[in-house]
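#onboarding

Welcome to the new folks! Below is a worked example of what a typical request in this channel looks like: someone posts a single protein sequence, and someone else replies with the predicted structure as tokens. Don't worry about understanding the tokens yet, we'll cover that in week two.

Example request:
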Amino acid sequence: MMVHLHIKKTALSLSLSLLKRERLMSTVQHCSCGQGSSCPSRARQTEPQMDLIHSSGVLVIQHLQSNYKDYHDFLDFMSSVGDPRNIFSLYFPLWFQLSQIVGTKMIWVAVIGDWFNLIFKWILFGQRPYWWVHETLFYQNNSLPQLEQFHITCETGPGSPSGHAMGSSCVWYVMITSALNFTRRLCDSSTQGCQRFGLVWSFLWMAFWIIQISVGISRIFIATHFPHQVILGVLAGILVAEAFEHVPSIHTASLKVYLHTSLFLFSFAVSLYLLLKMIDIDLLWSIPKAKKWCANPDWIHLDTTPFAGLVRNLGALFGLGLAINSQMFIQSCKVKNGYKTRFKLMCVAANLTSLQLYDFIKIPTHTEILFYTLSFCKSAAVPLSVVALIPYGVHLLIGDKERKLD
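Example response:
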């Protein structure tokens, strides 16, 4: 329950800040210009401070695209490293078998971090470079800057803060701090051990910042984020991850806590959306812009919309709660098998193999409700498989072999 109350207090404070922002954006909310969903950006384009920040960001994007085009493949790879979806399909299956505490924390941090990212995006109404350059009045007396688009450029949600940067920083922060906790015992043995720990500490944090900078540059390079949005995402992700260092109750949470938390996160987001829609604030204003200015319609994907990310993350959280409180998990991972290296390696191999097969499951996109429902189920199936189904299958397999040997 402490987890639920902690999230609820933070969410309420965010809603108060949203109400304050409402007054400052009255011209945006009423959209008297008669241009529908394009009004938020038009009104905001009259702010010289944001125009200056955005135009400076465009210069950075142009510099990267002009001088580092040969590194496109590497930057494309780093963008995938920061993709929040890889948390569930790669990082989580590996870490859960190494440490159930770290794996559990990783899911909580990823889900809550991405939920806050959604709320922040709805509050901040952040532009994206690839459409801003076409709609701004900043360049009215000059030629528009040319920004190249790529197959992963056309994100459909608002731009601030960067979801990739936030997801990457919060999850890698969990991994780095957990690895340091594992190696901290070196410092207890001798002075030489402390020196080794110092080297490990320096190396891991250097790797952390190299990864975050690379992910950030990749998102700027493809013109889907401005630099300030990436910086905000990295800092916000670190704050979320650090906050969960002080919430140990997630490791003993019951299925009821998982269910209540998922319902609260969903109901808060939907209530906020409906409330603002009643006063003529369209939180999906960015989708028409993405469809209008994306260079290739095939690059527009429904799974990049705000609600797609919401149901995907809530599905993962619910699936983890269902799995970690199941008898299959208790019988397979809570007994002696959970400490066997062979058992863990077999689980990791089976998990990674099976999760690759999940990518071949294509969810139909012709009906949004069906898409969101199936996305929830598919996401819930990932932790359910990683935590309960596959370990239980490996447990039965090992048990059969041991009985035959006896």
